[in-house]
Amino acid sequence: MVIMFSVFAFAACAGEDDRLSAPDNLRVQAEILLWDRVDGASAYKIFADGKMMATTEACYYDLSELSLTEEEECVLNVRAIPEDKEKAPSALSRPFAYTPSKEGEDATNSAGEFGTEERPYVISTKEDLENIFIWGADKCYVLGNDLELGEWTPLGAYSQPHGDRSRIPGLAEPFSGLLIGDGHTISYTINISDTDADKDYGWGLFGISEGATFRYLKIEATIQGAQPANSSSSVAGGLTGWAKNCRFDCCETSGTIRQDHNGSANYGCIRSGGLVGMAEGCAFYRCTNRADVLAGGFFASAGGIVGGQKDCDFDSCVNHGEISSNHGSWLFGGDNHGDLYGRT
Fold first, then answer.
1. DSSP notation for 165-217
2. What pLDDT, on the 0 to 100 scale, is given for residue 198?
3. Which among 45, 80, 110, 326 has most CB atoms closer than 10 A?
4. CB-side exposure of 205: number of CA atoms within 13 Å?
C-alpha cells in the first residue's frame, strides 16, 4: 500500500519586510567596484567568489586588493548592512563578473549563465540559503562553509490542507536544482509545535524537492515533536520531507529525527527518514545515516535513509543510527522500520 503525500504552501522567508534592499547597479571604473547607495545601510560587505573580503562604509571597493592576474575572473557580490539593528542585512547583490583585462559585466548576462554547475551561486550564510527561491529553485548552489541555522522553517512548500490530494508536486514550490555541499555541514533545529490539525506537513531543510540533485552534503538535524490529534500525515527527513525523482550522492545525516502523534489509532500517518521522509522515484548512492530516527502514531514508519519509498534505488547506502517505529491498531499490525527505508 502506498500513501501519496504532497506538501504545498510556500514558506516565505521570515522578516522580508524588515530586510534592506540588495545593492544594485554594480560597475567597475579603473579597478574600483562601485554600487548605488542603499537606504538605511551603514556599511557594505564585499564578497569575491563567495568569500567575504572586506567591509566598508563607502559605496566602492578597490579591486586591486584582490591581487588578481590579468586574465583571472572573479565573481563579485555586495551585501548591505543595516544601521537599524532591528532590520536584517540585505540579500546578496546580483553577481558581477570581473576580469582585470576586461570590463566587468553582470554575471547573469555574461557568457555562461550564472547559477549553472560551472558557475554556481555560493551559499555562505543563512540569508544566502533563504534566497534560493529568490535566485531560482532550479539553479546550482554550492556551500562555501558550514552553516549553523538555529531554529529553522523548511524552505519551499511544507504544508497543505488536510486530505487535499488533488494537487501534485510541480504545482507547489519544490527545490529542483543542484545543491553541492562540498563536504560542508548544515545544522538546524525544528521543533514541531503549534501545527494545524487540518493540515499535513513535511519537515526538513526543504519541505519538498522534485527533480533535484544533492551531492557531498552533510546534515546535522534535530527534528522533534508531535502532530496534533486528527492531523492526517507528517513526513520528516534531515534533507527534505518529501522527494520525487531526486538524486542523492554521498550525502550524510546525523542528529535526531523524532516524530510522534497525539491522535487516536485512526489518525497520524507518520514517515521519518534520516535523509528523506517520503521518497518516490529517487536514487541514493553512497549515502549514510547516523541520526536516530523514530516514527510514532497510526501507520508510522521509519528508516535510516527514507521513512517510506516507492520505486527508489539504493546503492552502497548504510545506516548507523537507531531506528524505531510504532503505531496504533492498524489492519496489518506490526512495526514498520528498517535500516534503509521504513515502508514501500
1. -S--TTSS--B-SEEE-TT-EEEEEEEE-S--TTEEEEESSEEEEES-EEES-
2. 67
3. 80
4. 28
C-alpha to C-alpha distances, 311 to 15, 211, 246, 250, nearest whole angstrom: 39, 15, 12, 20
pLDDT tens digit sequence for 193-229 = 766 666 778 899 999 999 999 999 999 999 998 776 5
What are the residues whose beta carbons fall under 8 Å from the beta carbon of 54, sequence distance 6 or more? 45, 46, 61, 65
Closest CA to 211 of 238, 241, 243, 179: 243
Name the class of domain 20-90+92-106: mainly beta
CA 29 to centroid of chain Cα atoms:
37
Structural domain spans, the chain: 9-15+131-338, 20-90+92-106
Q: How many CB atoms lie within 10 A of CB 146?
A: 13
Give me the pLDDT at residue 210, please.
92
Q: What are phi and psi of 130, to 5 degrees?
A: -65, -20
